[in-house]
Amino acid sequence: MEKILNYIGGKLQEPVSGNYLDNVEPATGQVYSLIPDSNKEDVDLAVKAAKQAFPSWSKTTKDERSVILYRISELILANLGELAAAESRDNGKPVSLAKSVDIPRAAHNFRFFATAILHFASESHHMEEGAINYTLKSPIGVAGCISPWNLPLYLFSWKIAPALASGNCVVAKPSEITPMSAYLLSKICIEAGLPIGVLNIVHGLGHKVGASITEHKEIPVISFTGGTTTGAQIAKVAAPMFKKLSLELGGKNPTLIFDDCNYNKMLKTVVRSSFANQGQICLCGSRLLIQSSIYEKFKIDFVREVQKLKVGNPKSPDTNQGALVSKLHMEKVLDYIEIAKTEGGKILCGGNQVDLSKEGLGGYFVEPTVIEGLNMSCRTNQEEIFGPVVTIMPFETEEEAIGLSNATSYGLAASVWTENVSRTNRVADQLHMGIVWVNCWLLRDLRTPFGGVKNSGVGREGGFEALRFFTEPKNICIKY
Ligand code: NDP
User: Fold this and answer.
1) Whose CA is nearest to atom 8 of ligand 1?
2) Which of 19, 49, 172, 348 makes a 20 to 30 Å CA pair with 419?
3) pLDDT of res. 406
Protein backbone atom coordinates (compact mmCIF):
# COMPACT_ATOMS: atom_id res chain seq x y z
CA MET A 1 0.00 0.00 0.00
CA GLU A 2 1.31 3.46 -0.90
CA LYS A 3 2.86 5.40 1.96
CA ILE A 4 2.60 9.16 1.93
CA LEU A 5 5.78 10.79 3.28
CA ASN A 6 6.58 14.07 4.97
CA TYR A 7 8.57 16.63 3.00
CA ILE A 8 11.20 18.04 5.36
CA GLY A 9 14.53 19.67 4.51
CA GLY A 10 14.02 18.94 0.82
CA LYS A 11 13.59 15.18 1.39
CA LEU A 12 10.62 12.84 1.49
CA GLN A 13 10.80 11.32 4.96
CA GLU A 14 9.08 8.79 7.21
CA PRO A 15 7.59 10.23 10.43
CA VAL A 16 9.97 10.05 13.41
CA SER A 17 7.61 7.72 15.29
CA GLY A 18 7.39 5.34 12.32
CA ASN A 19 3.62 5.30 12.84
CA TYR A 20 1.04 5.69 10.09
CA LEU A 21 -2.68 6.40 9.89
CA ASP A 22 -5.15 4.91 7.43
CA ASN A 23 -6.19 7.03 4.46
CA VAL A 24 -9.73 6.10 3.40
CA GLU A 25 -11.17 6.54 -0.10
CA PRO A 26 -14.56 8.20 0.52
CA ALA A 27 -16.28 6.60 -2.49
CA THR A 28 -15.46 3.04 -1.42
CA GLY A 29 -14.95 3.37 2.31
CA GLN A 30 -11.71 1.37 1.90
CA VAL A 31 -8.22 2.23 3.12
CA TYR A 32 -6.05 2.92 0.07
CA SER A 33 -2.90 4.56 1.43
CA LEU A 34 -1.11 5.40 4.66
CA ILE A 35 -0.46 8.83 6.16
CA PRO A 36 2.43 9.69 8.49
CA ASP A 37 1.17 10.03 12.06
CA SER A 38 3.62 12.84 12.72
CA ASN A 39 4.08 14.60 16.01
CA LYS A 40 5.98 17.46 17.65
CA GLU A 41 9.37 15.94 16.77
CA ASP A 42 8.56 16.06 13.04
CA VAL A 43 7.34 19.65 13.38
CA ASP A 44 10.57 20.54 15.21
CA LEU A 45 12.62 19.06 12.37
CA ALA A 46 10.55 20.97 9.81
CA VAL A 47 10.96 24.25 11.71
CA LYS A 48 14.71 23.66 12.00
CA ALA A 49 14.96 23.08 8.24
CA ALA A 50 12.84 26.16 7.52
CA LYS A 51 14.93 28.33 9.87
CA GLN A 52 18.12 27.19 8.19
CA ALA A 53 16.71 27.98 4.76
CA PHE A 54 15.31 31.39 5.73
CA PRO A 55 18.43 33.63 5.60
CA SER A 56 19.19 32.59 2.06
CA TRP A 57 15.59 32.34 0.72
CA SER A 58 14.58 35.69 2.20
CA LYS A 59 17.53 37.32 0.42
CA THR A 60 16.82 35.84 -3.02
CA THR A 61 15.51 38.45 -5.41
CA LYS A 62 11.79 38.61 -6.14
CA ASP A 63 12.65 37.58 -9.69
CA GLU A 64 14.36 34.40 -8.53
CA ARG A 65 11.42 33.46 -6.29
CA SER A 66 8.99 34.29 -9.05
CA VAL A 67 10.75 31.98 -11.51
CA ILE A 68 10.59 29.00 -9.11
CA LEU A 69 6.94 29.57 -8.18
CA TYR A 70 6.08 29.86 -11.85
CA ARG A 71 7.84 26.57 -12.50
CA ILE A 72 5.76 24.91 -9.75
CA SER A 73 2.61 26.29 -11.39
CA GLU A 74 3.62 24.86 -14.76
CA LEU A 75 4.42 21.47 -13.27
CA ILE A 76 1.01 21.38 -11.59
CA LEU A 77 -0.60 21.95 -14.98
CA ALA A 78 1.68 19.40 -16.63
CA ASN A 79 0.42 16.85 -14.07
CA LEU A 80 -3.22 18.01 -14.15
CA GLY A 81 -4.70 14.60 -14.93
CA GLU A 82 -2.77 12.75 -12.22
CA LEU A 83 -3.41 15.43 -9.60
CA ALA A 84 -7.14 15.64 -10.41
CA ALA A 85 -7.54 11.86 -10.20
CA ALA A 86 -5.65 11.80 -6.89
CA GLU A 87 -7.70 14.69 -5.46
CA SER A 88 -10.95 13.06 -6.50
CA ARG A 89 -9.99 9.69 -5.03
CA ASP A 90 -8.77 11.23 -1.79
CA ASN A 91 -11.68 13.61 -1.25
CA GLY A 92 -14.66 12.00 -3.00
CA LYS A 93 -15.31 14.99 -5.28
CA PRO A 94 -16.16 14.40 -8.95
CA VAL A 95 -13.00 14.18 -11.01
CA SER A 96 -14.56 16.65 -13.46
CA LEU A 97 -14.61 19.25 -10.66
CA ALA A 98 -11.03 18.55 -9.60
CA LYS A 99 -9.95 18.84 -13.23
CA SER A 100 -11.83 22.04 -14.00
CA VAL A 101 -11.62 23.86 -10.65
CA ASP A 102 -9.32 22.54 -7.90
CA ILE A 103 -6.12 21.76 -9.75
CA PRO A 104 -6.19 24.63 -12.29
CA ARG A 105 -6.81 26.99 -9.39
CA ALA A 106 -3.85 25.55 -7.43
CA ALA A 107 -1.66 26.25 -10.48
CA HIS A 108 -3.19 29.71 -10.76
CA ASN A 109 -2.42 30.43 -7.08
CA PHE A 110 1.30 29.84 -7.68
CA ARG A 111 1.26 31.74 -11.00
CA PHE A 112 -0.66 34.64 -9.48
CA PHE A 113 1.70 35.14 -6.52
CA ALA A 114 4.76 34.51 -8.70
CA THR A 115 3.82 37.69 -10.56
CA ALA A 116 2.07 39.64 -7.76
CA ILE A 117 5.29 39.73 -5.73
CA LEU A 118 7.02 41.56 -8.58
CA HIS A 119 4.56 44.43 -8.18
CA PHE A 120 4.46 44.53 -4.37
CA ALA A 121 6.31 47.80 -3.87
CA SER A 122 7.50 49.66 -0.79
CA GLU A 123 5.53 52.76 0.16
CA SER A 124 6.98 56.22 0.56
CA HIS A 125 5.41 59.27 2.29
CA HIS A 126 6.75 62.78 2.03
CA MET A 127 6.20 65.20 4.96
CA GLU A 128 5.96 68.99 4.66
CA GLU A 129 8.15 69.22 7.81
CA GLY A 130 11.06 68.18 5.61
CA ALA A 131 11.17 64.45 6.03
CA ILE A 132 10.63 61.38 3.98
CA ASN A 133 9.28 58.04 5.19
CA TYR A 134 9.75 54.79 3.44
CA THR A 135 8.18 51.52 4.57
CA LEU A 136 10.02 48.28 4.04
CA LYS A 137 8.02 45.07 3.90
CA SER A 138 10.25 42.22 4.96
CA PRO A 139 9.54 38.50 5.15
CA ILE A 140 8.75 37.43 8.71
CA GLY A 141 10.49 34.07 9.09
CA VAL A 142 8.88 30.63 9.36
CA ALA A 143 5.18 30.72 8.49
CA GLY A 144 2.74 28.03 9.62
CA CYS A 145 0.02 27.15 7.09
CA ILE A 146 -2.85 24.84 8.10
CA SER A 147 -5.58 23.93 5.64
CA PRO A 148 -8.82 21.88 5.49
CA TRP A 149 -10.05 18.93 3.43
CA ASN A 150 -12.75 20.42 1.24
CA LEU A 151 -10.57 22.03 -1.46
CA PRO A 152 -7.30 20.36 -0.56
CA LEU A 153 -4.66 21.60 -3.03
CA TYR A 154 -6.61 24.75 -3.89
CA LEU A 155 -6.54 26.06 -0.30
CA PHE A 156 -3.12 24.62 0.59
CA SER A 157 -1.50 26.47 -2.32
CA TRP A 158 -3.56 29.61 -1.62
CA LYS A 159 -1.56 29.99 1.62
CA ILE A 160 1.81 28.58 0.64
CA ALA A 161 2.24 30.57 -2.57
CA PRO A 162 2.03 34.08 -1.01
CA ALA A 163 4.08 32.99 2.02
CA LEU A 164 6.91 31.75 -0.22
CA ALA A 165 6.61 34.59 -2.74
CA SER A 166 7.16 37.14 0.02
CA GLY A 167 10.34 35.39 1.16
CA ASN A 168 9.18 33.30 4.12
CA CYS A 169 9.93 29.65 4.66
CA VAL A 170 6.94 27.48 5.43
CA VAL A 171 5.90 24.59 7.65
CA ALA A 172 2.55 23.40 6.31
CA LYS A 173 -0.03 20.85 7.34
CA PRO A 174 -2.75 19.68 4.97
CA SER A 175 -5.83 18.03 6.40
CA GLU A 176 -5.07 14.51 7.52
CA ILE A 177 -8.30 13.45 5.74
CA THR A 178 -7.02 14.58 2.31
CA PRO A 179 -3.20 14.51 2.25
CA MET A 180 -2.53 13.07 -1.22
CA SER A 181 -2.32 16.16 -3.43
CA ALA A 182 -0.06 17.93 -0.90
CA TYR A 183 2.22 14.89 -1.06
CA LEU A 184 2.28 15.08 -4.86
CA LEU A 185 3.01 18.80 -4.55
CA SER A 186 6.10 18.02 -2.48
CA LYS A 187 7.43 15.91 -5.36
CA ILE A 188 6.67 18.77 -7.77
CA CYS A 189 8.57 21.22 -5.53
CA ILE A 190 11.63 18.95 -5.60
CA GLU A 191 11.39 18.75 -9.40
CA ALA A 192 10.97 22.53 -9.66
CA GLY A 193 14.21 23.07 -7.73
CA LEU A 194 12.69 24.76 -4.69
CA PRO A 195 15.69 25.11 -2.34
CA ILE A 196 15.97 22.67 0.56
CA GLY A 197 13.92 23.58 3.64
CA VAL A 198 11.99 26.45 2.05
CA LEU A 199 8.74 24.47 2.11
CA ASN A 200 8.18 21.65 4.61
CA ILE A 201 5.00 19.57 4.67
CA VAL A 202 4.19 17.62 7.82
CA HIS A 203 1.28 15.18 7.61
CA GLY A 204 -0.80 14.02 10.54
CA LEU A 205 -3.51 14.84 13.01
CA GLY A 206 -4.71 18.32 13.85
CA HIS A 207 -4.33 17.95 17.59
CA LYS A 208 -0.73 16.75 17.17
CA VAL A 209 0.81 18.39 14.09
CA GLY A 210 -1.56 21.37 13.88
CA ALA A 211 -1.26 22.07 17.60
CA SER A 212 2.57 21.76 17.48
CA ILE A 213 2.69 24.33 14.65
CA THR A 214 0.38 26.66 16.58
CA GLU A 215 2.43 26.38 19.80
CA HIS A 216 5.87 26.55 18.21
CA LYS A 217 7.91 29.49 19.51
CA GLU A 218 9.81 29.79 16.21
CA ILE A 219 6.66 30.19 14.08
CA PRO A 220 5.56 33.83 14.43
CA VAL A 221 2.86 33.82 11.74
CA ILE A 222 0.00 31.39 11.13
CA SER A 223 -2.47 31.23 8.29
CA PHE A 224 -5.35 28.86 9.04
CA THR A 225 -8.45 27.81 7.11
CA GLY A 226 -10.91 25.49 8.79
CA GLY A 227 -13.75 25.31 11.27
CA THR A 228 -14.65 28.13 13.68
CA THR A 229 -14.06 26.00 16.80
CA THR A 230 -10.55 25.03 15.63
CA GLY A 231 -9.89 28.68 14.73
CA ALA A 232 -10.87 29.76 18.25
CA GLN A 233 -8.54 27.11 19.72
CA ILE A 234 -5.65 28.33 17.56
CA ALA A 235 -6.33 31.96 18.52
CA LYS A 236 -6.38 31.01 22.21
CA VAL A 237 -2.90 29.48 21.98
CA ALA A 238 -1.36 31.93 19.52
CA ALA A 239 -2.70 35.26 20.82
CA PRO A 240 -0.68 35.34 24.10
CA MET A 241 2.42 34.58 22.00
CA PHE A 242 1.53 37.63 19.83
CA LYS A 243 1.62 35.63 16.64
CA LYS A 244 0.29 37.18 13.47
CA LEU A 245 -2.91 35.29 12.62
CA SER A 246 -5.15 34.95 9.61
CA LEU A 247 -8.23 32.82 10.30
CA GLU A 248 -10.58 31.86 7.47
CA LEU A 249 -13.42 30.03 9.19
CA GLY A 250 -16.92 28.68 8.68
CA GLY A 251 -19.96 30.19 7.02
CA LYS A 252 -23.74 29.95 6.79
CA ASN A 253 -24.18 31.92 3.65
CA PRO A 254 -27.46 33.39 2.41
CA THR A 255 -28.60 33.50 -1.20
CA LEU A 256 -31.04 36.39 -1.74
CA ILE A 257 -33.33 35.92 -4.73
CA PHE A 258 -35.45 38.93 -5.72
CA ASP A 259 -38.36 38.71 -8.15
CA ASP A 260 -36.65 41.08 -10.59
CA CYS A 261 -33.70 38.74 -11.18
CA ASN A 262 -32.73 37.06 -14.44
CA TYR A 263 -34.62 33.92 -13.46
CA ASN A 264 -33.07 31.29 -15.72
CA LYS A 265 -29.52 32.43 -15.07
CA MET A 266 -30.26 32.52 -11.35
CA LEU A 267 -31.77 29.02 -11.27
CA LYS A 268 -28.80 27.43 -13.02
CA THR A 269 -26.23 29.14 -10.80
CA VAL A 270 -28.11 28.62 -7.54
CA VAL A 271 -28.17 24.84 -8.08
CA ARG A 272 -24.38 25.07 -8.34
CA SER A 273 -23.89 27.52 -5.45
CA SER A 274 -25.96 25.22 -3.23
CA PHE A 275 -24.46 21.85 -4.10
CA ALA A 276 -21.04 22.23 -5.75
CA ASN A 277 -18.53 19.85 -4.17
CA GLN A 278 -21.48 18.21 -2.31
CA GLY A 279 -22.07 21.55 -0.55
CA GLN A 280 -18.64 21.29 1.05
CA ILE A 281 -17.39 24.72 0.04
CA CYS A 282 -17.27 27.39 2.74
CA LEU A 283 -18.85 29.76 0.18
CA CYS A 284 -21.84 27.58 -0.75
CA GLY A 285 -25.19 29.26 -0.09
CA SER A 286 -27.06 27.08 2.39
CA ARG A 287 -29.91 29.48 3.25
CA LEU A 288 -31.98 30.39 0.19
CA LEU A 289 -34.21 33.43 0.69
CA ILE A 290 -36.75 33.92 -2.08
CA GLN A 291 -39.11 36.84 -2.62
CA SER A 292 -42.62 35.56 -1.94
CA SER A 293 -44.01 36.55 -5.37
CA ILE A 294 -41.77 33.91 -7.04
CA TYR A 295 -41.42 31.51 -4.11
CA GLU A 296 -43.79 28.76 -5.34
CA LYS A 297 -42.42 28.83 -8.88
CA PHE A 298 -38.85 28.75 -7.61
CA LYS A 299 -39.61 25.89 -5.27
CA ILE A 300 -40.96 23.68 -8.09
CA ASP A 301 -38.20 24.57 -10.56
CA PHE A 302 -35.38 24.31 -8.03
CA VAL A 303 -36.44 20.91 -6.67
CA ARG A 304 -36.82 19.61 -10.24
CA GLU A 305 -33.28 20.75 -11.14
CA VAL A 306 -31.77 19.40 -7.90
CA GLN A 307 -33.37 16.00 -8.52
CA LYS A 308 -31.56 15.90 -11.86
CA LEU A 309 -28.15 15.99 -10.13
CA LYS A 310 -26.52 12.62 -10.52
CA VAL A 311 -25.02 11.19 -7.34
CA GLY A 312 -22.44 8.65 -8.36
CA ASN A 313 -18.92 7.44 -8.90
CA PRO A 314 -16.56 10.45 -8.64
CA LYS A 315 -14.53 8.94 -11.48
CA SER A 316 -17.44 9.13 -13.97
CA PRO A 317 -17.42 12.28 -16.08
CA ASP A 318 -21.23 12.62 -15.84
CA THR A 319 -21.34 12.55 -12.01
CA ASN A 320 -22.51 15.82 -10.44
CA GLN A 321 -22.36 14.77 -6.79
CA GLY A 322 -19.56 12.59 -5.48
CA ALA A 323 -19.04 11.19 -1.99
CA LEU A 324 -18.86 13.20 1.22
CA VAL A 325 -15.36 13.31 2.60
CA SER A 326 -15.67 10.78 5.46
CA LYS A 327 -18.05 8.51 7.32
CA LEU A 328 -17.95 10.84 10.31
CA HIS A 329 -18.84 13.82 8.17
CA MET A 330 -21.64 11.96 6.40
CA GLU A 331 -23.11 11.00 9.76
CA LYS A 332 -22.94 14.62 10.89
CA VAL A 333 -24.81 15.73 7.76
CA LEU A 334 -27.47 12.99 8.17
CA ASP A 335 -27.87 13.98 11.84
CA TYR A 336 -28.56 17.55 10.77
CA ILE A 337 -31.26 16.34 8.38
CA GLU A 338 -32.90 14.57 11.35
CA ILE A 339 -32.58 17.74 13.43
CA ALA A 340 -34.28 19.68 10.62
CA LYS A 341 -37.19 17.24 10.70
CA THR A 342 -37.60 17.54 14.46
CA GLU A 343 -37.53 21.33 14.08
CA GLY A 344 -40.53 21.07 11.75
CA GLY A 345 -38.71 21.15 8.41
CA LYS A 346 -40.34 19.53 5.39
CA ILE A 347 -37.94 17.60 3.15
CA LEU A 348 -38.81 18.61 -0.44
CA CYS A 349 -36.21 16.31 -1.97
CA GLY A 350 -33.31 14.15 -0.84
CA GLY A 351 -32.76 13.54 2.85
CA ASN A 352 -31.16 10.11 2.62
CA GLN A 353 -27.89 8.30 2.24
CA VAL A 354 -27.42 6.84 -1.25
CA ASP A 355 -26.45 3.18 -1.38
CA LEU A 356 -24.11 2.53 -4.30
CA SER A 357 -22.70 -0.71 -2.92
CA LYS A 358 -23.99 -2.64 -5.95
CA GLU A 359 -21.53 -0.59 -8.01
CA GLY A 360 -18.75 -1.51 -5.59
CA LEU A 361 -18.97 1.88 -3.91
CA GLY A 362 -19.65 1.35 -0.23
CA GLY A 363 -18.77 4.95 0.60
CA TYR A 364 -20.41 8.10 1.85
CA PHE A 365 -23.03 9.35 -0.60
CA VAL A 366 -25.93 11.62 0.39
CA GLU A 367 -28.79 12.90 -1.77
CA PRO A 368 -28.84 16.65 -2.37
CA THR A 369 -31.47 17.82 0.09
CA VAL A 370 -33.87 20.78 0.06
CA ILE A 371 -35.83 21.68 3.20
CA GLU A 372 -38.60 24.23 3.72
CA GLY A 373 -40.73 25.46 6.58
CA LEU A 374 -38.04 26.41 9.09
CA ASN A 375 -37.54 29.75 10.79
CA MET A 376 -34.19 31.50 10.90
CA SER A 377 -33.52 30.88 14.59
CA CYS A 378 -33.51 27.06 14.41
CA ARG A 379 -30.28 25.05 14.49
CA THR A 380 -30.59 23.99 10.85
CA ASN A 381 -30.44 27.64 9.81
CA GLN A 382 -27.86 28.73 12.37
CA GLU A 383 -25.21 26.00 12.35
CA GLU A 384 -22.83 25.14 9.55
CA ILE A 385 -23.80 21.75 8.07
CA PHE A 386 -21.17 21.83 5.30
CA GLY A 387 -22.92 19.26 3.14
CA PRO A 388 -25.55 18.94 0.40
CA VAL A 389 -28.34 20.46 2.48
CA VAL A 390 -30.11 23.79 1.91
CA THR A 391 -33.18 25.44 3.34
CA ILE A 392 -35.57 27.66 1.38
CA MET A 393 -37.61 30.44 2.92
CA PRO A 394 -39.85 33.22 1.53
CA PHE A 395 -39.47 36.94 2.29
CA GLU A 396 -41.60 39.97 1.44
CA THR A 397 -39.35 43.02 1.49
CA GLU A 398 -35.74 43.97 0.92
CA GLU A 399 -35.37 44.93 4.61
CA GLU A 400 -36.66 41.53 5.69
CA ALA A 401 -34.23 39.72 3.37
CA ILE A 402 -31.29 41.73 4.72
CA GLY A 403 -32.37 41.07 8.33
CA LEU A 404 -32.68 37.32 7.72
CA SER A 405 -29.33 37.24 5.92
CA ASN A 406 -27.51 38.89 8.80
CA ALA A 407 -29.23 36.81 11.49
CA THR A 408 -26.49 34.23 12.13
CA SER A 409 -23.17 34.35 13.96
CA TYR A 410 -21.35 33.94 10.63
CA GLY A 411 -20.46 36.55 8.01
CA LEU A 412 -18.49 34.99 5.19
CA ALA A 413 -20.33 35.44 1.89
CA ALA A 414 -23.70 36.19 0.30
CA SER A 415 -25.02 36.05 -3.22
CA VAL A 416 -27.74 38.40 -4.38
CA TRP A 417 -29.94 38.00 -7.45
CA THR A 418 -31.54 41.18 -8.82
CA GLU A 419 -31.40 43.26 -12.00
CA ASN A 420 -32.06 46.48 -10.04
CA VAL A 421 -28.85 48.51 -9.70
CA SER A 422 -30.04 50.66 -6.80
CA ARG A 423 -31.17 47.59 -4.90
CA THR A 424 -27.83 45.92 -5.61
CA ASN A 425 -25.98 48.76 -3.93
CA ARG A 426 -28.40 49.13 -1.01
CA VAL A 427 -28.41 45.41 -0.22
CA ALA A 428 -24.68 44.82 -0.71
CA ASP A 429 -23.93 47.73 1.58
CA GLN A 430 -26.06 46.35 4.41
CA LEU A 431 -25.02 42.70 4.28
CA HIS A 432 -22.60 42.03 7.12
CA MET A 433 -20.31 39.73 5.13
CA GLY A 434 -16.75 39.79 3.80
CA ILE A 435 -17.83 38.88 0.26
CA VAL A 436 -20.98 39.70 -1.73
CA TRP A 437 -21.60 38.28 -5.19
CA VAL A 438 -24.33 39.82 -7.33
CA ASN A 439 -25.80 37.78 -10.18
CA CYS A 440 -22.93 35.31 -9.93
CA TRP A 441 -21.22 33.01 -7.45
CA LEU A 442 -17.62 32.01 -6.82
CA LEU A 443 -16.42 34.36 -9.52
CA ARG A 444 -12.93 35.02 -8.16
CA ASP A 445 -10.44 37.70 -9.04
CA LEU A 446 -7.38 36.74 -7.02
CA ARG A 447 -6.47 40.41 -6.51
CA THR A 448 -9.53 41.00 -4.32
CA PRO A 449 -9.64 40.63 -0.51
CA PHE A 450 -11.04 37.30 0.63
CA GLY A 451 -12.35 36.53 4.12
CA GLY A 452 -15.21 36.90 6.55
CA VAL A 453 -16.49 38.87 9.53
CA LYS A 454 -17.97 37.71 12.87
CA ASN A 455 -17.43 33.97 13.45
CA SER A 456 -16.21 33.55 9.87
CA GLY A 457 -12.79 34.77 10.85
CA VAL A 458 -10.29 37.59 11.01
CA GLY A 459 -7.93 38.89 8.35
CA ARG A 460 -8.08 38.81 4.59
CA GLU A 461 -6.34 36.64 2.04
CA GLY A 462 -5.84 37.34 -1.64
CA GLY A 463 -3.74 39.75 -3.70
CA PHE A 464 -1.65 42.28 -1.81
CA GLU A 465 -3.64 41.54 1.38
CA ALA A 466 -1.90 38.16 1.55
CA LEU A 467 1.51 39.65 0.77
CA ARG A 468 0.95 42.27 3.50
CA PHE A 469 0.00 39.51 5.94
CA PHE A 470 3.15 37.52 5.25
CA THR A 471 5.46 40.54 5.60
CA GLU A 472 6.41 42.82 8.48
CA PRO A 473 6.30 46.53 7.68
CA LYS A 474 9.07 48.72 9.04
CA ASN A 475 8.88 52.49 8.65
CA ILE A 476 12.05 54.55 8.29
CA CYS A 477 11.65 58.32 8.74
CA ILE A 478 14.50 60.54 7.52
CA LYS A 479 14.56 64.28 8.30
CA TYR A 480 16.47 66.29 5.73
P1 NDP B 1 -11.00 21.72 10.88
O2 NDP B 1 -11.04 23.00 11.64
O3 NDP B 1 -11.43 20.50 11.56
O4 NDP B 1 -9.53 21.42 10.33
C5 NDP B 1 -8.80 22.35 9.56
C6 NDP B 1 -7.33 22.02 9.70
O7 NDP B 1 -6.92 22.27 11.04
C8 NDP B 1 -7.00 20.57 9.42
O9 NDP B 1 -5.73 20.49 8.81
C10 NDP B 1 -6.99 19.98 10.81
O11 NDP B 1 -6.27 18.79 10.89
C12 NDP B 1 -6.33 21.10 11.59
N13 NDP B 1 -6.56 21.09 13.02
C14 NDP B 1 -7.51 20.41 13.72
N15 NDP B 1 -7.37 20.64 15.05
C16 NDP B 1 -6.33 21.49 15.19
C17 NDP B 1 -5.71 22.12 16.32
N18 NDP B 1 -6.12 21.93 17.56
N19 NDP B 1 -4.67 22.96 16.09
C20 NDP B 1 -4.25 23.21 14.83
N21 NDP B 1 -4.78 22.62 13.74
C22 NDP B 1 -5.81 21.78 13.90
O23 NDP B 1 -11.84 22.00 9.55
P24 NDP B 1 -12.21 20.95 8.43
O25 NDP B 1 -10.97 20.34 7.89
O26 NDP B 1 -13.29 20.09 8.96
O27 NDP B 1 -12.77 21.92 7.29
C28 NDP B 1 -14.09 22.34 7.24
C29 NDP B 1 -14.22 23.74 7.80
O30 NDP B 1 -13.37 24.64 7.11
C31 NDP B 1 -15.62 24.29 7.64
O32 NDP B 1 -16.01 24.92 8.83
C33 NDP B 1 -15.47 25.32 6.54
O34 NDP B 1 -16.41 26.36 6.57
C35 NDP B 1 -14.10 25.83 6.79
N36 NDP B 1 -13.56 26.46 5.59
C37 NDP B 1 -13.44 27.82 5.56
C38 NDP B 1 -13.00 28.45 4.41
C39 NDP B 1 -12.81 29.94 4.36
O40 NDP B 1 -12.11 30.39 3.48
N41 NDP B 1 -13.39 30.71 5.25
C42 NDP B 1 -12.70 27.69 3.19
C43 NDP B 1 -12.87 26.26 3.35
C44 NDP B 1 -13.29 25.68 4.51
P45 NDP B 1 -7.05 17.38 10.76
O46 NDP B 1 -7.72 17.34 9.45
O47 NDP B 1 -5.96 16.39 10.88
O48 NDP B 1 -8.02 17.35 11.91
Assistant:
1) 175
2) 348
3) 98
Per-residue pLDDT, 321: 98
253-446 in CATH: which number? 3.40.309.10
pLDDT of residue 199: 98
What residues contact 348, with CB distance under 8 A and at least 6 apart? 299, 303, 370, 371, 372, 392
- The residue whose CB lies within 8 Å of the most ligand 1 atoms, and thus the one to mutate among 209, 224, 228, 282, is 282
2-249+456-479 placed in CATH 3.40.50.2000: no
> 37 CB less than 6 Å from ligand 1?
no
Sign of torsion over alpha carbons 56, 57, 58, 62 = positive
Ligand 1 near 282 CB (within 6 A): yes
With 0-12 / 13-18 / 19 or more C-beta atoms within 10 angstroms meaning exposed / middle / buried, residue 378 is middle
- Own/partner contacts of 397-403, CB < 8 Å, gap of 24 or more, are 398/258, 398/423, 398/426, 398/427, 401/256, 401/258, 401/289, 401/291, 401/427, 402/256, 402/427, 402/430, 402/431
CA 371/CA 302 separation, integer angstroms = 12
Length of the chain: 480
Residue closest via CA to ligand 1's atom 45 equals 206
pLDDT of residue 180: 98
Q: What is the 3-state secondary structure (H, E, C) of 330-391?
A: HHHHHHHHHHHHHCCCEEEECCCEEEEHHHCEEEEEECCEEEECCCCCCHHHHCCCCCCEEE
The whole-number pLDDT of residue 380 equals 98
CA of 156 from ligand 1 middle (Å) equals 11
The residues near 305 (Cβ < 8 Å, ≥ 6 apart) are: 267, 268, 271
The DSSP bridge partners found for residue 393 are 289
CA distance 265 to 267: 6
The whole-number pLDDT of residue 35 equals: 98
Distance, C-alpha 378 to centroid of its chain = 26
| pLDDT score of 219 | 98
Give strand pairing partners of 92: none
Q: How far apart are CA 73 and CA 67, in angstroms?
A: 10
pLDDT value for 431: 98
The domains of the chain are located at 2-249+456-479, 253-446
Q: Which residues of the chain have pLDDT under 50?
A: none
Q: Read out DSSP for 193-238?
A: TPPTTSEEE--S-IIIIIHHHHH-TT--EEEEES-HHHHHHHHHHH
